[in-house]
């Protein structure tokens, strides 16, 4: 089967996760995503024990660690996670929110940390609820104060995920139901009346540890103990302030440090009355550290505050060169970074040594630096420079997202995600329409490949909203193409069509042929999804012609792939093959493995329609290999689904089950409802082969319900066929005939089914016709065509059936389970074995059980393996010994 021309070709047989699929849950693998700490925690033993006890209480689901910035909330929370690791069987995940200022980005940020990608119409928040609903999981949300408006979403998440616990660090209370506050206080202070080298408080221990990381030989001595104790007292036991002070011991011994600090505190006491006393102290400590810098170091410190979430030295060069140029007297970026790194005002982000180093500021330090930047009068010019730097970056990266190294380029954009958001947000805030549109258009393919569809659409909507009448430009046209495409991927076809039609009109007006080719293609696949076959074909033909004229090889390969996919959906195999073969030749020259994998899936679909199962499997294996290398979850799920279906046709049910389970897990994680319906049908088909009819029926019913929800008639038809096959096996011919009738109202059998599928379907129909007789069968078939699926499934099988119809057996504990069968045989395998022992041929067994001879042969292979025999005569002896005949 196909998926409407989106990412790849798909079949009706998809991976499964066993009982998880039948219960509609999303599998989230146990995980441990918590930053590593490299230093001990001082003086917090009692707090750790108390917090752990609170988290173990069933009535505490949300625990907020509240305290001033720099008090040590994050470090304390991390220690708690280590202590509680075994308590949360399904895992712990740390989510860093310090760089997130928009409450609407809280859920996407949490989802990204959990590895949940957004797919199609289901919101990422709903996917998160499904993922965590039955999990014993701890979610740690760090630095929540600037996104406190998102607190109701946390309350809503906890309302449906009853085993989930959330621990929040924040400067503010969240004020939501179920919140348990825990105030985080300063570290314990030394008693200045009884100071000696052996009696250390937690604050002194922290000072010494930090000092030793700079000077390994540093020790508390009778000569310096008093100074160290007074430093800790004067800094009120605030961990960040103590660390900043201790970082200066390389330059100043404790006694000199205390003297300098004493003067600074006297000078900086007070401040804004609206700030808490300890907040004033922290700000004073940071300002004191800032004042120790020379003028150029201070300017360097202020300017780097414009970066969010990390940055490279190359990026800093851009903002530092403003007003400096190549003046040799200026502080170099390398020297500036080294100086701030030594003074603990800068952090180096751990990563592979061969990569360009990245740096960041502690968030509290960055806040101070950003305030200083605004006070200096440089903020606007530096923020503009920052925004233009990242605009150049995304415009440079964009062409590389469709080529051999696109995974590397995608990773670069991922690393810069926070800076990209900050830059784009600033441009929109400044109403820089043209620059914002260029920014959005360049990020389109990144948003699409990484599944940031909702976020991308939100940015595009904001940027497009800045466009004034009569100011249409190339960037406007390209942004419309992006907005329409992302709307299509979320199944928002009405909006997609409207936006793409506007894009087509604007491209024509402006004479933008390359953009027009893109708009034609996107509009074509959208029209196809809406059932406008003629309109779709026309748009795709227009796009193809323009691509050939412009020699746009990548876009031509993409259009041909889409045209081939649609032709395959419509049953035009020769045309599909022609389009796809040309696309394959083009994409192999381009070396774009993502596009190649989707083209290969087209070829696999063509091969199976042509009856070449071996070739189809070979192609599917190649596509799956590419998908694994790319790490694209949506593409990988599709390729697993395809290969799982194909190997099942070869009789390798064990491998099919493995692929099915892996693929369906990904599909549920992605929340792709269209593909989940396909997967559920596959699972139903697979479990029916194994004789578990109850589970098979549950899969078909769930899939039917979901298909109705998304109004996908084709998917509804496939699940109705599955339910009809179950009814036929269970000797309910009237229900089976009605279900076949309902299915045929939704499926064009000659188009949607390959040869194997159609033969199996016709065999099932004929078996029901034979049981009922032509007249009764035709009547039931007609009834099914006017009844709703709910009416058919709710109706009881008539008491009066034709004489030749065997009555449905009474249900017993073994009717739908294989737990009590000998040698671990399933119910269906026992049925096959009984008939073989009676002397029936494979064809006769197939006819009796309403399955294909191929399936009978597969069952016999499995039976021989379980019984460790190799002949029909040995199988017959076993059946007799077990009283099966």
Percent of residues in helices: 55-70%
The DSSP helix count reads 42
Radius of gyration from the alpha-carbon trace, in angstroms: 33 Å
Could you tell me how far the N terminus lies from the C terminus, measured between alpha carbons in angstroms?
Answer: 41 Å
CATH superfamily of the largest domain: Tetratricopeptide repeat domain
CATH architecture of the largest domain: Alpha Horseshoe
Give the averaged pLDDT, no decimals: 83
Beta-strand content estimate: under 5%
CATH domain class of the largest domain: Mainly Alpha
Structural class: mainly alpha
What is the makeup of the main sheet? Answer: 6 strands, parallel
Number of strands: 9
Strand order of the largest sheet: 1-3-4-5-2-6
Identify the overall geometry.
globular
CATH fold category name of the largest domain: Serine Threonine Protein Phosphatase 5, Tetratricopeptide repeat
- Given as residue ranges, the uncertain stretches (5+ residues, pLDDT < 50) are 1-26, 264-280, 807-820
């Amino acid at each position: 089967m196909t998926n409407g021309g989106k990412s790849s070709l798909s079949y009706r047989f998809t991976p499964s996760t066993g009982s998880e699929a039948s219960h509609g849950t999303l599998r989230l693998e146990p995980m441990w995503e918590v930053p590593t700490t490299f230093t001990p925690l001082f003086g917090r033993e009692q707090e750790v024990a108390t917090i752990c006890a609170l988290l173990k209480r069933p009535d505490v689901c949300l625990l907020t660690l509240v305290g001033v910035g720099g008090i040590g909330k994050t470090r304390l929370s991390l220690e708690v996670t280590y202590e509680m690791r075994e308590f949360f069987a399904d895992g712990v995940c740390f989510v860093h929110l310090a760089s997130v200022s928009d409450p609407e980005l809280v859920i996407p940020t949490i989802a990204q940390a959990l590895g949940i990608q957004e797919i199609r119409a289901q919101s990422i928040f709903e996917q998160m609820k499904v993922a965590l609903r039955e999990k014993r999981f701890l979610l740690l949300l760090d630095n929540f104060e600037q996104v406190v408006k998102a607190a109701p979403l946390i309350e809503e998440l906890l309302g449906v995920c009853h085993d989930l616990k959330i621990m929040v660090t924040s400067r503010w209370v969240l004020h939501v139901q179920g919140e348990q506050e825990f105030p985080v206080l300063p570290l314990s202070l030394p008693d200045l009346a009884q100071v000696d080298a052996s009696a250390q408080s937690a604050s002194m221990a922290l000072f010494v540890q930090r000092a030793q990381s700079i000077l390994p030989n540093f020790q508390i001595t009778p000569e310096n103990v008093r100074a160290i104790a007074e430093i800790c007292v004067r800094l009120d036991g605030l961990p960040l302030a103590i660390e900043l002070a201790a970082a200066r011991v390389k330059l100043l011994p404790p006694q000199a440090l205390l003297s300098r600090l004493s003067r600074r505190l006297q000078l900086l006491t007070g401040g804004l009355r609206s700030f808490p006393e300890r907040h004033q102290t922290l700000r004073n400590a940071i300002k004191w550290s800032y004042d120790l810098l020379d003028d150029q170091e201070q300017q360097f410190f202020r300017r780097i505050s414009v970066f969010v979430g990390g940055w490279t030295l190359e990026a800093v060069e851009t903002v530092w060169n403003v007003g400096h140029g190549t003046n040799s007297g200026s502080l170099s970026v390398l020297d500036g970074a080294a100086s701030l790194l030594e003074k603990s005002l800068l952090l180096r982000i751990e990563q592979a040594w061969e990569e360009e180093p990245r740096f960041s500021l502690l968030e509290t330090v960055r806040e101070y630096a950003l305030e200083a930047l605004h006070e200096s009068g440089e903020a606007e010019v530096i923020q503009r420079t920052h925004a233009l730097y990242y605009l150049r970056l995304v415009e440079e990266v964009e062409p590389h997202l469709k080529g051999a190294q696109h995974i590397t380029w995608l990773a670069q954009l991922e690393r810069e995600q926070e800076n990209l958001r900050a830059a784009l947000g600033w441009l929109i805030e400044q109403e820089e329409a043209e620059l914002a549109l260029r920014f959005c258009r360049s990020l389109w393919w990144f948003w699409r490949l990484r599944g940031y569809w909702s976020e991308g659409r939100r940015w595009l909507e904001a940027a497009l909203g800045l466009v004034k009448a009569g100011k249409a430009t190339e960037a406007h046209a390209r942004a419309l193409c992006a907005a329409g495409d992302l709307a299509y991927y979320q199944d928002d076809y009405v909006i997609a069509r409207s936006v793409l039609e506007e894009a087509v009109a604007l491209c024509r007006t402006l004479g933008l042929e390359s953009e027009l080719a893109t708009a034609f293609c996107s509009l074509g696949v959208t029209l196809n999804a809406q059932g406008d076959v003629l309109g779709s074909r026309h748009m795709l033909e227009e796009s193809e012609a323009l691509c050939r004229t412009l020699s746009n090889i990548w876009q031509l390969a993409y259009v041909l792939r889409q045209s081939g996919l649609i032709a395959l959906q419509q049953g035009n195999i020769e045309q599909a093959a022609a389009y796809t073969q040309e696309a394959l030749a083009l994409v192999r020259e381009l070396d774009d493995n993502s596009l190649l994998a989707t083209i290969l899936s087209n070829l696999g679909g063509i091969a199976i329609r042509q009856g070449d199962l071996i070739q189809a499997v070979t192609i599917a294996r190649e596509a799956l290999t590419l998908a694994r290398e790319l790490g694209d979850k949506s593409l990988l799920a599709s390729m697993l689904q395809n290969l799982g279906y194909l190997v099942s046709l070869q009789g390798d049910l064990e491998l099919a089950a493995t692929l099915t389970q892996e693929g369906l897990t990904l599909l549920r994680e992605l929340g792709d409802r269209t593909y989940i319906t396909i997967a559920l049908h596959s699972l139903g088909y697979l479990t029916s082969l194994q004789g578990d009819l109850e589970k098979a029926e549950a899969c078909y019913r769930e899939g039917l319900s979901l298909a109705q929800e998304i109004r996908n008639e084709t998917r509804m038809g496939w699940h109705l066929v599955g339910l009809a096959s179950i009814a036929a096996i269970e000797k309910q011919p009237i229900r089976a005939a009605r279900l076949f009738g309902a299915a045929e109202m939704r499926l064009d059998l000659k188009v949607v089914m390959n040869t194997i599928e159609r033969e199996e379907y016709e065999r099932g129909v004929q078996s029901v016709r034979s049981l009922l007789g032509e007249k009764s069968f035709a009547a039931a078939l007609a009834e099914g065509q006017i009844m709703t699926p709910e009416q058919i499934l709710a109706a009881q099988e008539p008491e009066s059936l034709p004489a030749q119809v065997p009555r449905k057996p009474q249900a017993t504990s073994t009717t739908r389970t294989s737990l009590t069968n000998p040698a671990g045989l399933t119910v269906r395998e026992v049925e096959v074995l009984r008939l073989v022992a009676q002397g029936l041929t494979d064809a006769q067994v197939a006819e009796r059980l309403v399955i294909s001879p191929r399936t009978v042969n597969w069952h016999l292979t499995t039976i021989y393996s379980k019984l460790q025999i190799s002949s029909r005569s040995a199988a017959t002896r076993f059946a007799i010994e077990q009283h099966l005949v």
